[in-house]
Amino acid sequence: LFRSTGRLSRTGFDLSLGIQTSLAASVQTSGAITLPARLFGEIVARMPSDSPISLSCEEGGEQVELTSASGSYQMRGMPAEDFPELPLAQAATPIKLDPEVLVKGLRATLFASSSDEAKQLLTGVHLGLDGEGLECAATDGHRLAVLRLQNSADGEADLDVTVPARSLRELERLLSSRGGSDPVSLFCDRGQVVFQWADQVLTSRSLDGTYPNYRQLIPESFTRTINLERRALVSALERVAVLADQHNNVVKLSAEPATGQILIQADAQDVGSGSEGLAATIEGEAIQIAFNVRYLLDGLKAMACDQVLLQCNAPTTPAILTPADGAQFTYLVMPVQIRS
Question: Can you list the alpha helix ranges (DSSP code H) found in the chain?
């Protein structure tokens, strides 16, 4: 916790992710101290929002008193000198990103990153910026989410970096709660990335290594295309998932061009089975293909379209979900092999 004339600046840092923010305050004497973050945050969160909060600390002391209209609390802190310095990369020229574009890209991809720390690079989201716009991509080895958007803030800059999903979730949360449309400045330097806007800074390590060439995983053409109403598909999958979750999360999709229907089935051994039928426009031959229902739902809920295209070639090759309206979002999911 840092205090300076006319501003209250707060910094949190766990040696991987750092956040610094400041706000206007009436400061009588400048100073700095380190406080236990969880305790400090929980006390302040429960104080009345309709009255100001005062913080006081004797010079050279390590005990802080928080006072509001409801009461006062004392906390023992540590000298500010013991707090690790926040690394702030200072590349010559910052990359400018449209905050709305960045938030959309993160929301569409964060869910597909891996939670397995052993996979390192796959626990992050890859950010790529070129003359055509910003591309965000994430994969956990079983599915891949890619969204490309126009970035009006800085169309000339190039960017190629992978940032831990944990850091980007905080970034998405902070950007979503902000107002205004001023661009976000991004600095990349020696394994560190810094996002800066208004009175906030978020710094994170980047992930070392070359992100997988995910574009080569996406088939160039498909022999089968199924057009479905997205909300109806989500509703049907959620109902069938009640049974699928009892066994192995697997649902089987059977597309029959002759009837113009797709059948969604789940069979939970020793529990029960269920099926749902949906109207669909089917191009290509009939097919039976199975997926992890949770993977399907994650991708479908990341879209905002009315109609969605499910494209595939065979029951054992990658399938993709894309918005039928042409939005540049691609969600690839690997099928699950099933016994006949």
Answer: 37-45, 99-107, 165-177, 230-244, 293-301
